[in-house]
Every structure is written in C-alpha cells, then in structure tokens.
Design brief:
The structure is a homodimer of 421-residue chains. Helices cover 30% and strands 24% of the residues of chain A. By secondary structure, the first copy, chain A, is α/β, with parallel strands linked by helices. Chain A folds into two domains: 2-105 and 261-337, 3-Layer(bba) Sandwich (FAD/NAD(P)-binding domain), CATH 3.50.50; 110-257, FAD/NAD(P)-binding domain, CATH 3.50.50. In chain A, the strands form eight sheets. Chain A has a five-stranded parallel beta sheet. The model of chain A has no long low-confidence stretch (mean pLDDT 90).
Chain lengths: 421, 421
C-alpha cells in the first residue's frame, strides 16, 4: 500500500488527511500536539472570551473511525529525502512514498530588538493561554498596587494592524470593560490604555480602504489609540519605543506583526524557499524539484492560480488557502499514485473578514462588496460557527458566546499557569 | 469598618465570603488562584471527560458586584498574630480584625517511599490537568511502541478506595473504552489494566457495606482489578510494590489516598493541631486559643455538633462540611463583632454519594437509605449540576456531559502541557 505522510494537523494538514479518508493509501498524520487548533479564534482565548478547549479538537476524534488514516503524536525534526523518511524526535523515522508538508509558520519579529523576548505572539494555543494568564495577572497586580498604572501596568500595546491585531485590540477593550464593570477591580476604565501600532498608514491592508476607515473609527470609538505609519524600534520588559522616539511604558506587548516559515521544519527541508521562508511549490503544489512531496498552507508559497493574469501571485497565509491547498495536494498525490496527470491549484477567494468586537466586523466578499457593523458581525459569527461544524466544540462555543453576550459577567477569566502551584 | 480576611476560596472560604455580602464588614478573600475549583469533578478533568474551565470559576465573577467583598490574588505565607496581619508572598501584609482560615488540605502520602515523587494526586486543577496530560501521553506512547504495554505503559494504579479512588478508576475504564472504540488507538482494550488498591478490606468506608459490595461488583464488571486489604509499600517511575510483595509494573499511579493539613499554611499558624494536622477549633469554630480567628473546611477539625452523643466526633473532609462550616464561621464573626454570643456549629448530614461511572453511582441518605445504579447516578448528576447553579459553568458542563453521553466520541482528550511547545 502507498504510504502517505502528512506533516502537521492545522487547517492544511487536516484538510489533506480528510480528503484521503477511504482512498487507496496508508495515511499517517503527524503532529507535535494531539489536537487541531482553530486559530482564527485564538484571540478570544487570549482575551478570556473562550476556553482553551473551545478552539482545540483532538485529532484522533476526527480520524478514529477512518481505517486508512493513523495519527502519530511526535515532533518532526526533518526529512531524509534519500531514504524517503520523515525524522522524528526521540522515535524511529516514518517512511513515506508521498509527503505533504503542512507544518505552518511562526511569528515574525523582523529582528526588532527585544521583540521575540518580551512580546507575546498569538499563533498557537499555548501562546494564547500564556497571553491570557499574563493579561489577567497584570490586572490583579495593578489592583493590588495602583501605582503600577503609571509604569504601564494597564497599558496594552498591539503590534500589527491586520485582522489579528484589530481583533485583539477590540477584544482587549471589551475585556477591560467587563473587568471594571463586573469583576470589582478598583482601577477605572480610563486607566486602561490600548495602543495599536502598524508600520503602514492604514489598518487591514488586505481590505478595501473603506473597511480600514471603518475599523479605525470603531477602534477609536472604543478608546483604542492608533499609531499608524509608525514602526516599533525596540521592546523591553517595561517599554515599547517607536521609530519617532515615542516611548510607551507597558508590561504587555501582543505581537500580531506577521508570520514566517524561517526556522520551522519547512526551512530545514533543503528545498528552495521564497519570501518569509515559504517553500517554493510548482503549479500543482509539488515542492520545487520533487515529485513525491507537496507543501500547503502557511508553510508554502501557494500560487494563486494558473491564469496568466495571476502569474507570480502568491496566496495570503489564511485558513481558506490552507484548507483548499491541503485538499488539492491530497488529490494530486492520488492522481500521481494512479498515474494520472496532476492539475494546477486554483484558489477560490471566498472573501475575508475581521471582527472588531461585539456587533462590529467587516466582511469583504470576492467582488469587493463590504458588509460591516452588526450585519458584518453576524456574518463573521455564522461563518466561524459553521466551520466548527463536525466538531463538538461548536456547541460549547455557541453556549459560551451566547452566555457571554447576554450576561457580560462570566467569561473564563481564569489564570491556569502551572507556576501558580 | 471591621476588617475581615478570608484565606482561601475553596468551598469553605467561598461560603464564608458569600455569607458576608452586605454585612457591616470590609471583607477580603485571598487566594493564590483567581478561581474557585469545583473539586468533586476534578476526576472528570483528569480523565478527559470535562474541560478545565468546566470546574473553574473566576472568584471576581462571584464578588464583582458585592460592595464590601474584595478579592486579593496573592499567596498567604503565614499569620502575624501580634500585629493582626496575614503575611503575603512578595506583597504588603493584609491587616485584619477577624480572620477565617479556609486554606484546605493537600495529598497525604504516609511517608511511603516514592509516593510523593512518582504518583499523581488529585486535589487541585493543576493536579487534574497534569494527570490528564500524563494519561493521554501514555496512550500515545504505547500506540507508537506497543512493546511498552509489557512495561506497564497501559497499567493505571489507583491508590485509595474512597469516593475519589472509585470515581477515578471507573472513569479511567471509560476513557480506555472510548480511546479504543473511537480514537483509533491500535492497542486492544484488554491491554489496558486498571488496579485499585486500598489498605482496608472494603471500598467506600464512609458508606454502608452494601454500597461497598455494589461498588466492588460494578468495578470488577468493568474490568477493574481490586487489591483490598493491601498497602502500597513503594512507588517508582515504573512500578508499584504492595505489602505482600506483588509488583505491578506501571507508569501511572493516581494518589487518592487521603489528605492532610501538614505543611500547608494552616500548619504554620502556631495554634494547636489534631489528626492530619487539622486545626483544633472550639464548638463555635474559633481557632483554639483565639477569639478573633476561625478555621473551617478541610483545614479544620470541625466538630460534628454540640450534642453529648457527638462529643469528640469530627466531621469528614467533604464539600458539605466546608460549605456549612464556612457559613457558620462567618455568622459567628458577625455575632462577635456586634457583641452577641456565638453559637456552636452543628453539621447537617445531607448524605454522601460516589459515582462509579456511566449509569452507576451510590447515594446514601442520612437515614442510611441507599440509592444505586442508574437512579443513584441520576441523583448524583442532578446534585452536581445543582451545585454549579449560579455558575455559567453548569451550562457548559451540561452540554459537555450530554454530548459525551450521546456521542461517546469527542471528549476533550487534548494534551495542553506547556512542554509541548
């Protein structure tokens, strides 16, 4: 039987492995976590709106009944192309006939001094839990010692004005509202300060200008300060310095400044890489120079499509791209296995969306039509719940959300860090 | 205003602080966690039946709207009786006029070699999460390398035949059932072995003999091996040795062997202690030798009641005792503050219950009436959900439970340990 290994159980790997259920291949999906993370909602975990479990789904629950798909809980350290083996940490290597690399990306700090050391990225569930614990501890510290407010104890700096940055900033404002209104903290809401920094002159660059204007207006209306067209020069444990010399005292810097594939497993494959270390792939998503391996999702420089007008155009690092490219690579592996020609990948743009908080979001449809405000938010809500279908989690997410929306008083603002014990 | 400090936000401290809402005292409840833990369901978290968040409730959400109750997130290190201050770790001390000590207990290892080092207690949420991660990792390890089964990779030893031990053993059997049936693990259910050890000749000592017989029969029917009347002699990272020389190769020892107050904060108060280090208290729950401090719950040797027939009788360490004694101490502090005489505590036995798993539990009412089987389980389920009322969590717990009960396929079997990253 043809052995097909899928590296990574994010959107790309999961989509590939699901496509292969029932196909004539012995599939192994390997991940260093035993769960899939619903990354678009990590910011809700980080701001205590959802539980960790609401966005984590055990991989075995997805493939438990699939005869030809096996989960392997292990850390991939590299690929031995000569022996056709995936190397694992502290375990025997996994042999393969075909390989699909869906190993994702990691936060990109652009070499800014102190950024990787003192800021909080938001790409994994552990990132989200650490950030949540950190934020809640800051609130407790300032409550016990109000003098810390002047030292940035209640100042939250978000770096990056893309969807993640906008979402985190909006959700932080809501967390502070709730903390003051329902949690008996003794500081005033005005003591809390949220600053969103982006090097470009506007927010939400993938969106139309009017979406950016709407987002900026909404965020400002919720008390969030914007520093657009400004770059972060350095980060320390108590301050962020911007390129114009402004010093912002803060104890919490959220890093939503983009991702890279550099220094991940994908960067150690020895095959060509492009911008941000993304693996270069051919039109059918085979890794450049190979005919037995594919790369998909954030790890790959996925081409938009074969049309001449899209020549050289690379897809953004979005869940939709990962899902579609994962499925495509799986189908091409089957095509090749059965001696059929492979087909080029073609991205189907289903639109993009970002939420700014309660009852405020922007959804941009492929034609360019924008829906914003409550309607945009409902569209965002519906789509995210829809994607969780098939996962038990959607019920819990629904209950959590509904309850929170109605009561505003009891999100999971629990500090669970192990260092408490 | 009279300053009243409550140490600990378990059942006892929470009950005391809730009783004091709106009373003429400035109340501070201090805990090293920012959440209350619903301990009776920790075993469900440990066996991946519930999420951490289902049994954790933010303390601030309970007292956020109470004007006279403040939460303080800090670790208590002792009490300075001379200055009337509670000492805190890395923070200024908390002055008090009255004090209620509800600092709980900790696992008791009876000095058995290796027990504290190699076994998993189940008293805090962190304990439960660590145990869950450990169990799920063992299943993954054996799946990757079946030879580990012979070395105890799938053997789970539970020490202690009280309600917690019985509950854990039953839930472990269910976890193994689900893992094999739905999660695609390659080992057989028969490879998994659960052994319950207790030094006494029977299970569930606080219950009538017939409850113990029922529990033993039910556990055996679910494949669990019982070693009753046997003591654990030593624990290592790969084996448990019993007093009759039997060696059980295992990688997982769950410690449900009882609790002690020794080495907790309560043990450092310099006031008299009794069996298991529990603080000696007078009939009205004041700490022996003090008139400004009370002790309640697991931390105290709570007297059963003032009737001569109950002379010297001490309450068991149960949630009900903590709840009732916490409330009583709060009322007596108010009585004394307002120059009224204090009243003796009187425990109202509301019955005890233990679940052995799906559709099997025993409930023993105060008169001695036993309800068992499905009816006992429904009583257990109803009571636990009832106790979560007022907490958002009950809805999530209900959804989780219902879903698990119906689907059997998607509990939160997620390994979230930080060492994954």
């Amino acid at each position: 039987m043809h052995r097909l290994v899928v590296v990574g159980a994010g959107f790309g790997g999961l989509s590939a492995a699901r496509t292969l259920i029932g196909k004539p291949a012995e599939v192994t999906i390997v991940d260093q976590r035993n769960f899939h993370t619903f990354q678009p909602l990590l910011y809700e975990v980080a701001t205590a709106g959802l539980e960790s479990g609401d966005v984590a789904y055990p991989i075995r629950s997805i493939f438990g009944r699939a005869d030809n798909v096996t989960f392997r809980f292990a850390t991939v350290t590299g690929v031995d192309w000569g022996r056709h083996q995936v190397s694992l940490l502290e375990a025997d290597p996994l042999p393969f006939d075909s390989l699909i690399v869906a190993s994702g990306a990691t936060a990109k700090f652009f070499g800014i001094p102190g950024a990787s050391e003192f800021s909080f990225p938001l790409y994994t569930l552990t990132d989200a839990r650490r950030l949540r614990d950190h934020i809640l501890r800051r609130l407790e510290q300032v409550d016990a010692d109000p003098a810390l407010t002047a030292e940035g104890g209640l100042t939250f700096v978000v770096v990056g004005g893309g969807p993640t940055g906008v979402e985190v900033a909006g959700a932080l404002a809501e967390l502070l509202d709730v903390a003051v209104r329902h949690d008996g903290f003794r500081f005033n809401r005005e003591d809390g300060k949220i600053v969103l920094v982006d090097g470009l002159g506007r927010l939400l660059t993938p969106f139309k200008e009017s979406a950016a204007t709407y987002a900026a207006k909404t965020l400002r209306g919720r008390g969030i300060e914007l520093r657009l067209g400004r770059m972060v020069k350095s980060v320390t444990d108590s301050c962020v310095e911007l390129d114009d010399g402004e010093q912002i005292p803060t104890r919490t810097v959220v890093w939503a400044g983009g991702v890279t594939v550099d220094s991940t497993i994908a960067s150690r494959l020895g095959t060509p890489t492009g911008q941000n270390g993304r693996l270069v792939v051919d039109a059918d998503l085979t890794i450049s120079g190979r005919d037995d391996a594919y790369a998909v999702g954030d790890a790959a420089a996925v081409p938009w499509g074969p049309d001449p007008a899209d020549s050289g155009r690379i897809c953004p690092q979005l869940a939709q791209v990962a899902i579609q490219s994962g499925k495509h690579a799986a189908l091409q592996a089957i095509n090749r296995m059965e001696d059929r020609p492979t087909e080029p990948f073609r991205y189907t743009d289903k639109g993009i969306m970002a939420t700014i908080g309660r009852r405020a979001a922007v959804t941009q449809f492929p034609g360019g039509t924008l829906v914003r405000g409550t309607l945009g938010w409902l569209a965002w809500l519906g789509l995210h719940l829809l994607y969780l279908i098939g996962f038990r989690n959607r019920i819990v997410v629904l209950v959590n959300w509904s309850w929170r929306y109605l009561s505003w008083g009891s999100g999971p603002r629990v500090i669970v860090g192990d260092n408490l014990e």
